[in-house]
Design goal:
The protein is an alpha+beta fold and 720 residues long. 48% of the residues lie in helices and 19% in strands. It is built from 25 helices and 24 strands. The strands form seven sheets. It has a six-stranded antiparallel sheet, with helices on one face. A five-stranded antiparallel sheet has the order 4-1-3-2-23, covered by helices on one side. InterPro entries: AcrB_DN_DC_subdom, Acrflvin-R.
Length: 720
Amino acid sequence: MGYLMLPVSDLPNIDFPVIQVQALQPGGTPEQIASSIAEPLERHLGTIAGLQEMTSQSSNGMLRVTLQFALSRDINGAARDVAAAIQAARVDLPKTLRQNPTYSKANPNDPPALILALASDTHTLPMLYDQATNNLLPRLSQIHGVGLVQISGSALPAVRVEINPLILYKYGLGFEDVRAALASANAHTPKGYIDTAGQRFQIVTNDQIHRAADYERLVVAWRNGRPIYLTDVATIIDSVEDVRNAGYYNGKPAIIAQVYMQAGANAVAAIDQFHREYGVIQSTLAPGMRLATVMDRSEVIRASLADTRLTLGVSVVLVIAIVLLFLVSPRIVVVPAIVIPASLLGTLGFLWLLGYGLDTMSLMALTIATGFVVDDAIVVAENIARYAEEGLPPLDAARQGAKEVRFTIISITASLIVVFLPILLMGGLTGRLFHEFAITVSLTLCVSAILSLSLTPMLCARLGTHAAENAFTRILERWHEQTQNIYQRTLEVALGHPTVVLLSLPLSLGVTVALYQGLPQGLFPDEDTGMLLGRVMGNETISFQAMAHDMETVQSILLQDPDVAGVAGFLGGRGSSNQGNIFIRLTDKAERSDTVASTISRLGQRTRVLKDARFFALQRGAIRIGARPSNAAYQYSLQGNAPQELYRYTQKLVTQLSREKTLMDVSSDVLLGVTVWMCGLCVTPLRVCRSRRNWSVMFFMTPMGKGRSLSSTTPSISIV
C-alpha cells in the first residue's frame, strides 16, 4: 500500500518559496514605472520577514518584482504577507494605475511543468486568445498545485483608435478631448428610475460600444455648428489591446499556455489531473480549436524513475545471485530473497507515513541500502547454519544463532545510522536535497535489523540451512577451491614483497587525489530532459515587425534540425517586444546521436545568420537556485547606488567577458534604448507650448521612440 500511495516526483521538495508581483500601466516608460511603482512596492515588500532576495524589472507598461524567501518560510504564509504589503503600498502608487498589483506563487526561473498550444485553421489569434483566457486559464488554475498560468501569443479583443495629431491640431483639439469623448460613450453607470402614480420605470440605455463601426459617428466636438466625428480625426479598427504579440507552434500561429507549479507542489499529480480533465477542457473550447501538448515534464520524471526502479530491481537480483554463489545452499539464499524485498517494502510504508514521496533520491537510497540489508540477513543466517551443522535442531539453532549475534546486528545498525547523521542534520539547499536520502537509508537499516532478528531466524528454522548434494553444488565447491588457491598464491607473493605492498598505499592515495581533482564537480549532474529553452534577443532599436521575422526565421532553422521534434514560442506579452521565448522539444534520446551540449552548439551556429538579433539556448537543470531568469547556466549580479553608472559598467563587463575564448555566449538583462522626444526645442517652456497648442500632459507622457527594458535594481550577466 505504501508503494502504491506514495506521490511521484523527480526530486524532494527543494524549491525556494518564490512569489512574483506584477503591475501594469499601459503607456508607461521603464523610468516612470521604476520610480512611481517599483520604488513604493519595494519599500513595503522589503519589510516582509524571511525575504532573502528581491529583484525587479521595469519595462514598457509593466513591472515584475520577484521575491525569494527562506527555505523555512511557508509559501502560503508568505503570500498573505505579500498581499498585505501590496494593500499597504496602494496609497503610494499612482492614481492612474487601473488595477492593484497582482501576485502569483510561482518561480519565473523554473521551467514550466506543462506547455500547451491552442491552434485553429479557422479562428484568428485574438479569438483563440479570448477562448484561452476565458475557458482554458480558469480550468488550468483550478488544478491543485498550479501557481501560475501564463497565456501568450496575442491579446484580448479591443477597438483601436489611431489618432492623426496633425488633423487633431487642425481642428484645435487635444488628446484629452478624444479621451473624454470615448469615456463618455462607454459610461456604464446606473441611470436611476422614474416614479409615477402607482408605477416605477427603470431607465435603461445602451451606453456600451463594442465594435469599431459604432464609433464612427461618435461626436468628439463641435466647430462652427458642425460636429467633428471620431472618423474625421482617427482611424478606427477592430483589433486587440496590444498588437505587439505573436505566438507560434511548429511555425504556425498559435496561443501558448505555460503552467508553472507552486513551491513544493507535485508536478506529476497536477499533470495527471490535467490529462483526466482534458476531455472536459477541450469541450469548453469553440469548435475548430485544437489543444496540443507541447511539453509534459511528467514524461521525463516517470522515465527517470523507471530507470531508477530498474536499477533497484537489478541490484536486488545481483545480490541474491552473489549470495547463492558464495553460500552454495539454495535454502539459505531464500532467506535474503525474502528479507530484502520485505525490508524495502516496509521502508516505503514508513516513508508514506512521514509524508515523503517516491523520487530519485529515495530510490537511490533504497538501492544503496540493499547491500546493508543483505549483510544483516547473511550474518544471522550463517551463524544459525553453524549451529545446525553442530547437530542442534533447526528451531534451537535459530534461537541460539539469533541470540548470539543480536548485539552485533544492533551495533552495526547504530554505527551505520551515525554515518548518515551529518547528512541528516545538514542545512541549506544541500541538506534539504539529501535529507530524504538519509532518512530513507536510516529507516531501511532499522527495518532490516528488526527483520533480521525476527523473520530471518523463523525462515531458517522452517526452511533449514543444509545444502543438498547435487551437480550444481559440486560445481560451486570446485569454483570455491580454485578461488582459494588463487588467493593463497597472490597472498604469498604479497607477503614476499612487503616493501612494494607498503609503497602501494601512498601511491594509491596520490592517484585517488589526482583523480578527484581532475573530475568535474557540481551539486547535481546534468540530465537530458528532452527539452531546451531558447530566447531570441533583438537589439535595442529593432521594430516588432523585424523581431517577428527573426522569430519565424529561428523557428524555421530549428525545425530543420534532425534532433528537433517540435518548436513553440511567443513574442511580446512581457513588456518588451525585442525578446522572444522559444520552447524546443527534442526527439527521443535513443534517436539522437549527439549530446544535448552538441545540439545546443549546433543550433547556435545555425542561427548566427540573424543580423539584428541573437539566439540563446540552454537546458534547465534539475536544481535551480534563485528566482531570476537568465539566458545561461551561470549568472552574476552587479550592485550599485547610481543606476546610470551601474549600467555603464555592466556594458563594459559584458564586453570584456565576451573576449574570453572559453566563454561561448555572454549577455545581460540590461537593454538600454534611445528615447526620441517630440518637440525637443519646447522642453523649457513646456507648459506654455502645451497651452498654446491645446496639448494635454498625456501627449508628452508617451515618447515616439521605444524605451527598452530596464532593471530597477541590480543588472544580471548570463554566461555560457
